[in-house]
Design brief:
The chain is an alpha+beta fold and 359 residues long. The protein contains ten helices and 15 strands. It has one domain: Jelly Rolls, CATH 2.60.120. This is Protein DMR6-LIKE OXYGENASE 1-like.
Length: 359
């Protein structure tokens, strides 16, 4: 596939007066896409199942009976949905709004100020740009992004003023929530609460902040914010500015997430699927754009340490499932594959699946 010849930094936000999208953004003109599959729900969620809600306070400080019930709910939602909304998570809504506003201010910086962060790799400490890596795509997506590595080493852009302080406080709080959830998920699998923390070396876990800007699009019926894909890592935690657009696959249909303001939206990543030997599936999701409102989302994948080899937990294989369905791979090697592959479906995770032997 030929590399697209783009300027050093090109952004959809920098062209607010377009009346038609450039042809390179016409995602729906491509063949073999999944963008036209039926969507469940009309935007208000009237005819779709509600996405499950987890009360984190009952997991961390509830009675024994309440905690047991939440652990059971976590297991069921991870297995049936692969995603859930988290309430009573302990992160101040004002801090969440500050983080969204700070990302908005970053996107509003002059191009020259952002150009210094033009990254070339998933693990560059700070990178910003548009769409995804142009060397592996046939089309551009209606999205500008900022990606920052915040753990185990903390990095931050120097502008806008105060960004670093907000970023440090917010991502530390989200990391705590992710670890609490992974403790409950460990228990839902019949393991002790610290199993995933130990096995995945979460003291050195990789945490990224990915801020996404989806400006109004003059032809939203042709463009995509992001195509169907899954996320690397164990869990992705997401917040947004109240403008919907995220959809996920559930029971063969696209479902509007309709995220409640102030909650955290969490979904299973590829490496939790591998660790659970496929019991908990990573979620295929995509982003639709609109012609009226700017959408800002902040997605934070939480993975194991870069040097951790992720494979099905031996304890789960011993407890009734005697065959591993996935081969092990070092996390940073998986990220290399992700960087070189397209964002169509689950092709990256398919590389780890072990085909059943023919008898």
């Amino acid at each position: 596939m030929a590399t697209l010849n783009l300027p050093p930094v090109i952004t959809v936000a920098g062209n607010p007066n377009l009346t038609h999208i450039p042809p390179i953004y016409a995602f729906r003109n491509l063949s073999a896409t999944t963008t036209d599959q039926k969507v469940s729900g009309n935007g208000a969620g009237e005819d779709q199942e509600p996405i499950p809600i987890i009360d984190l306070s009952l997991l961390t400080s509830g009675t024994p009976d309440q905690r047991t019930a939440v652990v059971l709910d976590l297991g069921n939602t991870c297995q049936e949905w692969g995603c859930f909304m988290v309430i009573n998570h302990g992160i101040d809504e004002g801090l969440m709004n500050k983080m969204i506003d700070s990302c908005s201010e970053f996107f509003n910086l002059e191009q020259e100020e952002k150009r210094q962060y033009k990254g070339k790799h998933t693990l560059d400490p700070i990178s910003c740009g548009t769409s995804v890596d142009a060397s592996v795509t046939e089309v551009l997506f209606w999205r500008d992004y900022l990606r920052v590595l915040v753990h185990p080493e903390f990095h931050s852009p120097t502008k806008p003023s105060g960004f670093s302080e907000v970023l440090a406080e917010f991502t530390k709080a989200v990391r705590r929530v992710a670890r609490d959830l992974l403790g409950g998920i460990s228990e839902s699998l019949g393991l002790d609460s610290s199993y995933i923390e130990r096995a995945m070396n979460l003291d050195l876990s990789l945490q990224l902040l990915g801020a996404n800007l989806y400006p109004p699009c003059p032809q939203p019926e042709l463009a995509m914010g992001l195509p169907p894909h899954t996320d690397h890592g164990l869990l992705t935690v997401l917040v947004h500015n109240g403008v919907n657009g995220l959809q996920l696959q559930h029971k063969g249909m696209w479902v509007n997430t309709n995220i409640i303001p102030g909650v955290l939206f969490v979904h299973v990543g590829d490496h939790l699927e591998v660790l659970t030997n496929g019991k908990y599936k990573s979620v295929v999701h995509r982003v639709q754009v609109n012609n009226k409102s700017t959408r800002i989302s902040i997605a934070m994948p939480h993975g194991p340490s870069l040097d951790t080899v992720v494979s099905p937990a031996p304890e789960l294989l011993e407890n009734g499932c005697h065959r591993a369905n996935y081969t092990g791979m070092k996390y940073k090697d998986y990220l290399e594959i992700q960087h070189r592959s397209t964002l169509r479906g689950k092709t990256r995770l398919d590389l780890l699946k072990i085909k059943p032997e023919l008898s």
